[in-house]
Description:
This protein is of the alpha+beta class. The protein has two helices and four strands. It has helices spanning 18-27, 56-67, and strands at 4-12, 32-40, 45-54, 72-78. The protein has a four-stranded antiparallel β-sheet, with helices on one face. A hairpin with a 4-residue loop joins strand 2 (32-40) and strand 3 (45-54). The longest helix has 12 residues, at 56-67. The radius of gyration is 13 Å and the shape is globular. The N and C termini lie close together (6 Å). It comes from Candidatus Avoscillospira avistercoris. It holds the Pfam family TM1266-like. This is Iron-only hydrogenase system regulator. InterPro entries: Acetolactate_synth/TF_NikR_C, ACT-like_dom_sf, FeFe-hyd_TM1266.
Amino acid sequence: METRIALLAILVENESSVEALNDILHQYRQYIIGRMGIPYREKQVSIMSIAVDAPQDVISALSGKIGKLPGVSSKTAYAGGGRG
């Protein structure tokens, strides 16, 4: 199945959503290449980036689940072309 490389940029402003976010990421762990999180305490926000290599429908499902969490916003950027 063809996969794509993508980067999810996630901002968490509602600390009560962190556990649910980590649960979602755990469900998709087989597709995660790497992740970085930065707690920005001064602004009470956590900044995360998640690099994935997955089929398009998996990336869309992951992004959609994350976007439904309260106080969490995300955007996805894709590398050009597919990977097989």
